[in-house]
Design goal:
about 350 residues, alpha/beta, 5-stranded parallel sheet, 7 helices, about 20% strand
């Protein structure tokens, strides 16, 4: 059992921002805090993005605190650009991220501390910053007949790039940014594409200014304040109506169909008898927060989410969630990391028995 003041779980944007602010507050890595990262290399979830998602296609990537990302080639894969940037950031600020480390459970410990059980041993900590994001929990909806489909089903988390769908009939499920990006990429290669969503997509005209951003974040924040599962910020902002989207709408690639009612061995079917044959169903259906390791603390509310005020879990003020709900954006994660550290520094000191 090793004792620290703070354990940070995750080294994506939220985790690195938190670690930076811990250092600025005078805490030393490995002595006062540790950063435990599940991923094999720097880059957070970005390192797993598909090669065709170039840096120039990334929207709203905000620099980490204290170091700008400049001079990046927009034609390079975002996984390479951001992976290298995160690695340089970790070295520059000496954050000493431990990886790959799986955090298996966080429990009540002794002396008022939390016990963080991991593949790197157990840590006793006064506070926890959870920055695990969503990438490890892709959401797969269930539909009647799904197990009978003879083609291939995959999720955005497994998306290999558009060339893998050459000559195939592809159904893309999901009305978010990933779904539209997949369709626009796949269409020139595929024999046919079909786009289905549960709700009609909302396209946003004009610039997304600061006031609109605050309003969108406030809607997400209200859900987590009520203890409901967070929705993504994108789900309340709508899809930006850029030139690529306009072309997709004009040429019929983004001809949205309502959600099918069942999956058949050869495709999908609606209640009115309409059918679409398919070789592939690509589920661009989003992700859920990766917080199963927090289950022993019983933080979930009856609504299914973790109620938070700022970044602090209402059920346990020692636990902070950054990159969760309203802070699930690159700029939001930066701000949340700073706020979490400020709050943790206010935790009252406890008299704790010496560990034998």
């Amino acid at each position: 059992m090793r004792e620290v003041e703070v354990v940070v779980v995750g080294a994506g944007q939220a985790g690195l921002s938190s670690a930076y602010h811990l250092r600025r507050a005078g805490l030393e890595p490995d002595r006062d805090f540790v950063v435990l990262d599940h991923s094999p290399a720097p880059g957070g979830a970005w390192q797993f993005r598909w090669p065709s998602l170039t840096y120039g296609k990334v929207h709203g990537m905000h620099a980490l605190p204290g170091m700008e990302l400049t001079g990046a080639d927009p034609a390079r894969a975002s996984s390479e650009v951001i992976g290298e940037y995160f690695a340089r950031y970790e070295r520059t600020f000496g954050l000493r991220v431990r990886r790959p480390v799986d955090v298996r459970a966080v429990r009540e410990g002794s002396g008022g501390r939390l016990s963080v059980e991991s593949s790197d041993g157990t840590w006793a900590t006064r506070a926890l910053i959870n920055a695990t994001g969503t990438w490890d929990r892709p959401f797969w909806p269930r539909y009647r007949g799904q197990e009978t489909f003879r083609g291939r089903q995959l999720h955005t988390a497994q998306y290999p790039g558009p060339e893998a769908f050459a000559g195939q009939r592809v159904i893309v499920v999901g009305g978010g940014a990933s779904g539209t990006q997949h369709l626009l990429e796949i269409a020139p290669y595929a024999a046919a594409t079909t786009w289905v969503t549960r709700r009609a997509p909302v396209f946003r005209e004009g610039p997304f200014d600061e006031e609109a951003g605050r309003a969108a974040v406030a809607l997400v924040e209200e859900r987590v304040r009520q203890g409901l599962p967070p929705r993504s910020v994108v789900s309340v902002t709508g899809l930006p109506l850029n030139d690529a989207i306009r072309r997709g709408l004009a040429d019929g690639v983004l001809d949205r169909q309502p959600m099918f009612d069942r999956i058949t061995p050869d495709g999908v079917e609606w209640e009115d008898g309409r059918r679409v044959a398919a070789d592939v169903i690509l589920w661009a259906t989003g992700f859920r927060p990766a917080v199963d390791h927090l289950a022993p603390l019983r933080l979930r509310e009856p609504g299914g989410g973790i109620r938070i005020e700022g970044t602090r879990a209402v059920a346990d003020p020692r636990v902070h969630l950054v990159g969760y709900g309203p802070s699930a954006s690159t700029i939001g994660a930066n701000r949340a990391g700073r706020a979490a550290v400020r709050d943790i520094r206010r935790l009252p000191a406890r008299e704790e028995p010496a560990v034998a």
